[in-house]
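Reposting from the mailing list since nobody answered there.

I have sequence plus structure tokens for a pair of proteins and want to know whether others read the tokens the same way I do. The first protein:
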Amino acid sequence: MNYLSWDEAFMQIARLIAMRSKDPNTQAGAVIVDENNVIVGLGYNGFPRGCSDDTLPWERTGDFCDAKYAYVVHAEANAVFNSNKPTRGCKAYCTLFPCNECAKIIIQNGITEVIYAEDKYHDEKIWQASRKMLEMAGIKYTQFTPKFKLNLTV
């Protein structure tokens, strides 16, 4: 069988939409799909609408207001904000395991499952809190294991 599973297809779409991010360090993407495997939301990490990518900082260190973390909207949050219908009962495909802030958004919007590609910050407190909340809310999360190696570079 030489075709993509739904998980494979949606994770590849998450990786593709991540390439829209102008973040020079981390490009993240997310796709939300309903119970019929119809995409209801896409998102990537970037600054809020109307906030210039050329004015706000992309730095990772420094004073709070001089680093990107004060301003960036994460891919998972943007996928929820950009959804074209309610996300209750949906799955989220994420290139990175969601942080604690995105976990709150996922929980509050009724997403029932998270499939993620990487968990590179697993041991940091923010992601420990995320896992704790997802587990308390009964949200299933699974690391994606690719079956195909696709080259999406341009």
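The second protein, same order (residues first, tokens after):
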Amino acid sequence: MKIGLLAYHSAINFGATLQLLSTYMYLKNHAHSPIVINWVAADLEESYSNYTPAVQLSAHKQLRKFLWHETPLCRTEQEVAEVIRKEGIEAVIIGSDAVCQHHTRRERTVFPCRTIIGIEPATSDRLFPNPFWALWNDLLPHPIPVAVLSASCQDSQYKFFPKATCEAMKRQILSYKYVSVRDTWTQNMFAHVTNGASVPLVTPDPVFAFLHNAGCLLPSKEEILRKYNLPEKYILLSFINEKSVSQQWINDFQKITKADGCTCIKLPFSQKEGFGQMRKTISLPLSPLDWFAIIKYSAGYVGNNMHPIVVCLHTGTPFFSFDNYGLKRFNGLLTSDKSSKIRHILETAGLADWRTSCISRRYSAPVPNDIYLRLRTFDLDKSNAFADIYYQKYKGMMSKILQSFNTNAV
């Protein structure tokens, strides 16, 4: 079966690339013909070019040619429908990733700010409707089956949605052959907008199956150590800014690890180097495959963002998460981490002690020695057991998606 994949394939984001590649390789390994639907909103593309170093942007474009097969570029719903028709795509999988977002003006209101009240901009991929919601299916001569895989609404404050928006979303959600979400916040959003008609299962991020689906693409440990001049034993630090830790915190942590024969390495984000001065830094451009391998072969990861934690859980790598996800209002005066994907995953895994939320103004960084002790006492048995459970859930999810495509009704 020729199956279209609609996700953040052009995102300059390590996790987004690995998610899509995992799904793509799963389908190839199961004798299907996957093709990435090359929808890129013009304003999103402009955003990437504005906030991403040119070397990383160029490297990602070249890597896409190597990793998967794409359709011609699409900008509109009509162009997506046309490329589906011309390519003979028989079904579409949307996701994984933040493919069901909607952020109302009320949610994006900033107060106080220089103009007293302001509205944060949002690119069209973060506003309903857009092609991630599959309205292009109405433009096809014959609608095709659509599945939504481990979707996230990325902290969308769904209780602010107007009634008309909820009704339009409900129509789309109920038209899907299969739908699952990545976290309970998104699950609650779907239940809210459909008045309980759809309460999707929470299913794993595809990166939890990456080694099974695409492990053959990874470089070896020897190749990684040689290419990046890394020591045998190293710990990765990766912080977006000084809101999680200070430079003094980093200095103290480096002293602790050095005394134990371990070197701290600064791991960059896909769009910038990250915060802090360290003895050694891995620079951009960096391939998502190398990024995954660098984490896998490390003695531990300490820092922000979700996908490094997913990679650690999947590969049995110790970690400590400085969780930067959640809702912030009034310049951080009101915060809540209930929507955090990291919180959901680690509480489910029984590993909540390896996480701290750092979004509140009252936040204070944990003592460096305590964090190093967490790495040394990481519960690997519990982590591995959770990873195996999630892999089994992943296989069940993919099996159900393919079964849903084989039924007659759309």
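Reply #1 (J.P.):
I read it the same way you do. The chain is about 40% helix and 15% strand.
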